[in-house]
Structures are given as structure tokens and as C-alpha cells.
Amino acid sequence: MLGVVQMVVVGGAALAVNQAAISCARYASLNPSFAQSSVGSYLTSTASPLISDSGLQPVVLSPTAVPRATGTAVTVTVSYNLQTKLFLGTTFFGVTFPSQLSVTQTMASE
Length: 110
Hints:
By secondary structure, this protein is of the alpha+beta class.
């Protein structure tokens, strides 16, 4: 039963990281003059309560040069360290749980 609960926690965090990456990529694509720090502030203000803690890593934005030209690709990577949420550890009865989640999303600057 505890293994199932931990799987639910990991799955919920994975969904939250994915949604945060999509949201940040959209934000960066709509605001081509915003640098990585602005996108990072947006991430911390809009991240799900499931991941808005010390495990949330700084957002990575590429390209870093601003302003970005219309139509160029902007890539955002959101990472989250799951160590504090894994109450059973990373391995439990042969099942391995991830300790780090990372999602990269790319959108065209508008």
C-alpha cells in the first residue's frame, strides 16, 4: 500500500512539472524580451503547490539572449528534486522511483 501511495506522489509531481514547463514555455514565447530570471519568477509564482518548495530547481531558458526574434524557438526546462517527497526511498521491494524530474518544452516566440 505504501508503494502505491509513493507512486501517486511521484505521478502527481510529474504532472505538475510538466504543466509548469508548458506554462513557462508559453510565457517565454509570448514575452520575447523577458530573460531567464523573469521566467523563473513566473515559475515560482504559478507552480503547483505540489512542487512549489525547495525541490524546485531554477528554470533553464534557451536561447538566453533577449529579445528573441519572432518565430525563433524558445526552450524551457523545469526540474524538480523529489528526494524530500520519497518517504520510502528510491528503491522499495525492487521498484525504483525517480529522484529527479525534468521536462523540456519548446515553443516559437511570437
